[in-house]
Amino acid sequence: MHTHLIAPSLLSADFARLGEESKHVLEAGADLLHLDVMDNHYVPNLTVGPLVCKALRDYGINAAIDVHLMTNPVDRLITDFAQAGASNITIHPEASKHVDRSLDLIHSHHCRAGLAINPGTTLHYLEYLLDKIDILLIMSVNPGFGGQAFIPSVLAKIQKARQLIQASGRNIYLAVDGGINKENIKQVAQAGADFFVAGSAIFTQSDYKKAIADLRSELTHANT
Ligand code: DX5
Ligand code: ZN
User: Fold this and answer.
1) Closest to 102 in 3D by CA, of 63, 123, 127, 133
2) I need a surface site. Which of 29, 30, 126, 219 has the fewest CB within 10 A?
3) What pLDDT does 2 receive?
4) What is the per-residue pLDDT for 224?
5) Does any ligand 1 atom lie closer than 6 A to the CB of residue 50?
6) Residues 106, 82 contacting (CB under 8 angstroms)
């Protein structure tokens, strides 16, 4: 297992001040930034494209940018986001016609490749794809919006995913995205996650440092 990573989702940040917000949350102790890309087609919401990722880089953001592509199709945007400075690119298998090829495409740009599994999707995609991914992102809400409630049945899926990763012997991050807060993060960690995306739990707070410290303090208790 890796050390725990906390990735604030910029979806809940102030979009008019995205550069500042990104810097602020990194100074407050975030490990990396999670950028939710929604296309009003794969999900019923519309957010940002590669220009915004590039703008964050130009603004001086050097931390890893974890791009979560909720778009269909994915391939063109994989290349565009890689060129715009993405570090990790995670795709939904249902959104790519040739998901194995899309994962290769992400690696060809020297980015980490992630696969996102929706709440209603089983882990069957992993049977032939586990070898190709660096991040497994378990969705604990249906993709499309921030501020939704964590779906508890996902905990069992996280446990199962942890077992599969363990059995593979590969160095894969197990990320969880949606509804993570200081009340449930410990349980999510105990189920086997080591990478936590949190939007509203951080950006609705006035003190980001305290919000992140609260999450981390729960994580230090996860082993007890
Ligand atoms: C949902 C996004 C999440 C979301 C998380 O489609 O993938 O990253 O912004 O936000 P919270 O933590 O508020 O559920
Ligand atoms: Zn996300």
Assistant:
1) 133
2) 29
3) 79
4) 62
5) no
6) yes
Residue with tokens 């089983």: 122
Asked if residue 224 is part of any domain, the answer here is no
Give the H or E element holding residue 135.
strand 135-139
pLDDT of 212 reads 98
DSSP H or E segment with residue 57: helix 50-59
Helix (H) or strand (E) holding 115: strand 112-117
What's the distance, CA 28 to chain centroid? 19
Contact of 183 with 219, CB cutoff 8 Å: no
State which ligand 1 atom lies nearest to the alpha carbon of 141.
1
pLDDT score at 140: 99
What residue has token string 């809940």? 12
Q: Which residues of the chain have pLDDT under 50?
A: none
Which residue from 121, 110, 141, 106 is spatially nearest to 36, judged by alpha carbons? Answer: 141
User: How many A from CA of 103 to the centre of ligand 1?
Assistant: 22
* Three-state secondary structure call for residue 140: coil
Contact 12, 204 (CB under 8 A): yes
Give the residue numbers marked as catalytic: 36, 177
The domain that holds 123 is classified in CATH as 3.20.20.70
Q: Residue 181 CA: which ligand is closest?
A: 1
For residue 80, tell me if it sits in a domain.
yes
Q: Write the Ramachandran bin of 63: left for phi over 0, alpha for psi from -120 to 50, otherwise beta.
A: beta
- 66 inside domain: yes
Closest atom of ligand 1 to CA, residue 45: 6
